[in-house]
Design goal:
TIM Barrel; 5-stranded mixed sheet; 42% helix; 16% strand
Length: 440
């Protein structure tokens, strides 16, 4: 196929026998409930490795005017703080390209220039020092222009994302397929890739975004079976939260759980900081990135709850987020089942009879007054992060477990067995015994 990437190869390189393929070979760490990661070439967007076994990275895009250097940089810093590894910035005129030249040396993360229609702006962005380009095949269509950009990107040692969008497909491709179906998006991507490969350019990342979630998922699965380049995932024009979040999670998570995807973006009609937070959170929840923020588990509340679960959760979330603890916390409305149901959480608290039962890995360690349960939870969470699980279990109140059990039994006596466990067990036994009798 020609020369491979000019960047260093990953530890387990993909054989350089062509970027197109007929099967989706995978490798990498296995996560419970997830196939192994799809094997790809590796590229670098600045210092961020993409594909080839690298961690899945989060991308977002600024909404400021790029010529406003200070305003754009402020948003880039906010995005970086919220979890973005890469930030895309529009380069739609000469002033924007000049703004890029000024902000790139001051940016905390690699900047990718978003290019539409004018290939010379791609050349200008390269001159400005961007870490990568995004080209839309639907609006830069002249082969000679695409190849000129590829040659300049190769000379600069930066990658190109072939960014196909269902809303801007070439009219001939649309006509051939009868609409923006998954096959049309993939054909557009492969055509653009061919132009790049013909000039020996292989530092490529690809996206085939669609606003219709099933079509988006289908397009990426087709593409994953056709190429060995890393893929950037996203549901385009997902809209405002909560619908935009739901659509993005549905599409992106479906693919990540199949081992497909190397970078992601939530395209929300919202502050882009929310995109970065959502993307980072999704990767943490899927076990694809190390947790660096709060993961809060809470019961939905029910008639058995002895406290205002929603109010307690909101107070605890605010306090824990302010503390910035990378920890999984459970808040349960009652002590009857709370510690057991949330035993996998790092730490949690369950309410019962005016008390808060604080537990670590399902083991009750302290019993506190209900009025101070949030403060006690945050205090213990900080100690847990600082000292570790074993140390905090060793420091537990030895009477706490007995107190919690007394409260649990007392609540069952007052409220009854809300799950009707005894009655259900007896009914199951009657059916089983009756069946056994008929078989004899």
């Amino acid at each position: 196929m020609g020369r491979g990437p000019r960047r260093p190869e990953p530890e387990r390189p993909v054989p350089d026998d062509g970027a197109h393929r007929s099967s989706s070979a995978v490798h990498g760490p296995t996560i419970a409930g997830m196939t192994t990661r799809r094997a790809t070439r590796q590229i670098h967007v600045g210092p961020v490795a993409v594909g080839g076994g690298a961690p899945v990275s989060v991308q977002s895009m600024t909404t400021t005017k790029t010529a406003d250097v200070d305003g754009t940089l402020a948003q880039i810093y906010a995005l970086s703080g919220a979890g973005a590894d890469i930030v895309r910035v529009t380069c739609n005129d000469v002033a924007a390209a000049q703004g890029l030249a000024e902000m790139i040396p001051r940016s905390p993360v690699p900047i990718v220039a978003d290019i539409h229609f004018q290939y010379r702006l791609a050349l200008a962005a390269i001159e400005a020092g961007v870490a990568g380009l995004r080209l839309n095949p639907g609006n830069i269509r002249k082969e000679s222009h695409i190849k000129a950009v590829a040659a300049a990107a190769a000379a600069a040692g930066i990658p190109i994302r072939v960014g196909v969008n269902a809303g801007s497909l070439d009219k001939d491709i649309l006509a051939a397929h009868g609409g923006p179906v998954p096959e049309a998006l993939v054909e557009s991507a492969l055509t653009e890739i061919r132009y790049l490969e013909e000039v020996g350019f292989h530092d490529i990342k690809i996206s085939v975004k669609h606003s219709h979630v099933p079509s988006m998922v289908a397009a990426y699965r087709l593409l994953a079976d056709a190429v060995e380049y890393p893929l950037h995932l996203g549901v385009t024009e997902a809209g405002p939260p909560p619908g935009g979040l739901i659509k993005s999670v549905a599409g992106i998570a479906s693919l990540l759980l199949d081992g497909i995807g190397d970078t992601i973006r939530f395209s929300l009609t919202a502050d882009p900081v929310e995109e970065a937070k959502a993307g980072r959170s999704l990767l943490e929840y899927l076990g694809l990135r190390e947790r660096r923020g709060l993961d809060l588990i809470a019961c939905p509340s029910c008639g058995r709850a002895d406290v205002d679960v929603i109010g307690v959760v909101e107070r605890a979330r605010a306090a824990l987020e302010d503390a910035g603890l990378p920890i999984q916390v459970a808040i349960m409305g009652c002590v009857v089942n709370g510690p057991g149901e949330a035993r996998e959480a790092d730490i949690g608290i369950a309410a019962g009879r005016g008390k808060g039962h604080l537990f670590i890995k399902g083991e009750v360690v302290r019993v506190v007054d209900e009025g101070s349960m949030v403060e006690a939870l945050v205090e213990e969470a900080q100690r847990l992060v600082d000292e570790g699980v074993e140390a905090r279990l060793a420091a537990k109140d030895v009477t706490a477990a007995d107190l919690a059990e007394e409260t649990r039994l007392e609540l069952i006596g007052i409220q009854g067995d809300a799950n009707a466990t005894a009655r259900r067990r007896a009914a199951v036994a009657e059916v089983a015994e009756g069946t056994a009798g008929r078989d004899r």
